[in-house]
Amino acid sequence: MTKTVYLHVGPHKTGTTMIQKACLDNRDVLGEHGISYPSLYFSAIGHHELVNTVRRRAISDEHLDVLAEEHDKVVLSSENFIHFTAQDWSYLNERLSQFDVRVIYAWRRSSLKMYSMWQESIKHGGTIPFHAFYYKDLIRPGASRSLMQTLNIDAMAFVFGKERVHILDFDALSESQTLVSTFFDVLGIDGSIIDTSTQGQGFKNEALDPVTIEVLRFLNTLSEKAGHPKGAKTREVFLSMKASFADELEQVTQLMTGCVESWDVGDYFVDKATESAFKNRFLANIISYKPKNRTKNIQVINQDWLLNDRAYSLISNMHRQVIAHC
Q1: Which of 283, 260, 90 is nearest to 169 (CA)?
Q2: pLDDT attached to residue 201
Q3: Relative to the CA of 88, which of 54, 154, 279, 305 has its CA 20 to 30 Å away?
Q4: CA–CA separation, 78 vs 241, rounded Å?
Q5: How far apart (Å, rounded) are the C-alpha atoms in residues 268 and 272?
Q6: Quick check: 23 and 76 in contact, CB under 8 A?
Q7: Interaxial angle between packed helices 110-123 and 269-282, expressed in degrees from 0 to 180 and rounded to the nearest 10
Q8: Whole-angstrom Cα distance, residue 95 to residue 38?
Q9: Quick one: pLDDT at residue 219?
Q10: Is the distance from CB of 296 to CB of 207 less than 8 angstroms?
Q11: Is residue 53 within 8 Å of residue 80, measured between CB atoms?
């Protein structure tokens, strides 16, 4: 019997960490039902090393033998799959030709996702304000893989076959709190038997409040100007020291008063256009589809707060302390 490989491709900010954590915590349960969440290519809580291996064109016959020795169903999960080119997908399909390859993609409405993606970029050392981050996609929405997500699905459907692509309606499943259980339903296991009681322990990737994310963005800017390597270290140290910065953060919050911009996102033209494209092309592939007109209020601090002389002094002081612990 041909074994099945499920590629869980994310993308980012669609509950991927929750699903990976559930797979990791329930490896024994999965195994009892003929499903492997293998150690091969494993890094952190997902199979991120497979992404690097594909890019190096380095999947060996030995690797394939290891996968073949797993259970009848194998789950390989990484949100970084979403960055693959058409050539990457073709190579992966060729190397996995002995398996029945299926793709699981979580679809989240575009403008609702962009704010979360921007926050994620700041958490990993980014310095770009939200407006600039969004604008580069908004000026060419039809060519943006973040907004026009059918571009991602088209690439995978072309390589693996449209009938092998399973699309989770992230917004609907999140609303009903059934995202994780539905993922396991796709694998052929009753999602209700999956233990998610430890979801809150470790590997958290929670949203940050507007003040904290703006402070972190500027700390990243100072680190970048000082020549420090870009990455998540500044964020990790800053958050670990946040309690000791209570006085500084209280003053910064006061400086930011009046500089808060607020929008309702989720029902823009791009959301309607991309939802229409999804329905027209992949409605039969979408699991638990529910039409959405939900909006979400987001808040961003504009940069006018930095015009106050006290602002730079406060941030610089915090930055010196953070760098000393990096």
Answers
A1: 283
A2: 58
A3: 279
A4: 30
A5: 7
A6: no
A7: 110
A8: 17
A9: 96
A10: no
A11: no
Report how far residue 101's alpha carbon sits from residue 87's, in angstroms, rounded to the nearest whole number.
Answer: 17
Residue 222 sits at the vertex; the CA angle it makes with 219 and 223, to the nearest 5 degrees, is 85
Interval 89-98 mean pLDDT: 98
The better pLDDT of the pair 51, 149 is held by 51
The CA distance from 237 to 322, in Å, is: 6
Q: Quick one: CA dihedral 198, 44, 154, 65, positive or negative?
A: negative
Q: Which amino acid does the sequence have at 264?
A: D
pLDDT at 126: 95
Residues 6 or more apart from 61 whose CB is under 8 A from it?
none
pTM: predicted TM-score of the whole model, two decimal places = 0.86
Q: Which amino acid is at 189?
A: I
| CA–CA separation, 115 and 223 (whole Å) | 23
Q: Which two tokens stand for residue 187?
A: 């694998």
Query: Phi/psi of residue 73, each to 5°?
Result: -125, 135
Q: Are strands 73-77 and 100-107 parallel, antiparallel or unpaired?
A: unpaired
